């Protein structure tokens, strides 16, 4: 008998705990009050809830005078779930996702449309970056957070989608350790591994950009996306901070650094419409090592974890990157902002899949540092 009563009590306790445990909706309503998100005692009123496979969307009418407020970010901790807050057509939207993003997503080698690159998975699904819509990109993040992996993912996927139309000029300032092994691929025109080579590489890109400009003028073209020209040229910089002149450099060296920084700025300023795209990776962006023009002209900004909120603001114009907590997790910022997990790709996989484009065993003119003429049309 005792046993029966004891068992009944335990079951009741579990039932009561489940019943009295507050729902997300209750917790949100309590949070409004506790953090003072109200006007004269009036808190937002739930207007509707919308359920999908991956999230629950709570839409609120808010009293006049309230808009979305950064302090609502506490909801992420209160609910212990990913939350996205926005203000749409005078209503507050609180989207509560069912699941955290996975810590590892393998890159799947599925081709996509031309210049659209699947750079990450967000709570809402795949994120595709379209280099024809937004030509230039900056990528920031502390060491070992995933910048080079993302650069290689973009590189590999561009080749997968457009093997005959894409070409690369790569400045790999880790002495060529990261991209050196790809320098014999037919799509790779130049891999620069130090500042002397970077100067040569950028000067040759600049010559080509000027050539394109003359051609566009002669033809009356304004933007490559409105022409039949298929070719796109990508300039990738891995570790741009290495191009910063310092007092330890000689005058001669400083001139080279200055030239590289200036030219990157010029490329970002004039070449987007002509079909050249710049991707500038950098550990810790500062006003000294992220050329102002490059930042201004890069409408896509990605950041992995950064040490401070200030660094986050330099990289993506807002806080948040200081809170990212695992390799491959990044914020993708265009006119919108998404938190994403970048798919993981490794060198072995790239070499196996793209090895067919290796021309190292071909005739001498196809070996490294090729300076082929760009073909139009
Ligand atoms: N998208 C990812 N998913 C899971 N793990 C990742 C991802 N990207 C990177 N990593 C892990 O982090 C390590 C370092 O990545 P990566 O070389 O890209 O860092 P980095 O930001 O370029 O660092 P550094 O500034 O030192 O060059 C990888 O070897 C891998 O273990
Ligand atoms: Mg790196």
Choose one word for the global shape.
elongated
Content of β-strand: 15-25%
Spans where pLDDT lies below 50 across 5 or more residues: 362-377
Distinct helical segment count = 9
Measured distance between first and last alpha carbons: 89 Å
Can you summarize the main beta sheet? 8 strands, mixed
List the strand order in the largest sheet.
9-8-10-11-7-12-13-14
Total beta strands:
14
The set of bound ligands, ions and cofactors reads: adenosine-5'-triphosphate, magnesium ion
CATH architecture level-2 label of the largest domain = 3-Layer(aba) Sandwich
CATH superfamily of the largest domain: P-loop containing nucleotide triphosphate hydrolases
Quaternary state of the chains: single chain
- The mean pLDDT is 88
CATH topology of the largest domain: Rossmann fold
Helix-strand pattern: HHEEHEEEEEHEEHEHEHEHEEH
- The SS-based structural class is alpha/beta
Could you characterize what this model shows?
- The chain has 377 residues and is an alpha/beta fold.
- It folds into two domains: 16-97; 116-366, Rossmann fold.
- 31% of the residues lie in helices and 22% in strands.
- The chain has helices at residues 2-20, 24-34, 75-79, 147-161, 195-219, 251-270, 292-297, 309-316, 347-354; strands at 45-51, 55-61, 83-88, 91-97, 116-122, 125-130, 137-140, 166-172, 188-192, 232-238, 276-282, 300-303, 329-333, 337-341.
- The strands form three sheets. Strands 9-8-10-11-7-12-13-14 form an eight-stranded mixed beta sheet, sandwiched between helices. Strands 1-2-4-3 form a four-stranded antiparallel beta sheet. Strands 5-6 form a two-stranded antiparallel sheet.
- A hairpin with a 3-residue loop joins strand 13 and strand 14.
- Helix 5 packs parallel to helix 6.
- It is elongated.
- The termini are far apart.
- Magnesium ion is lined by residues 147-148, 238.
- Residues 124-313 form the FtsK domain.
- GO terms for molecular function: ATP binding; DNA binding.
- Pfam families: FtsK_SpoIIIE (PF01580).
- It comes from Oceanobacillus picturae.
- Keywords: ATP-binding, Nucleotide-binding.
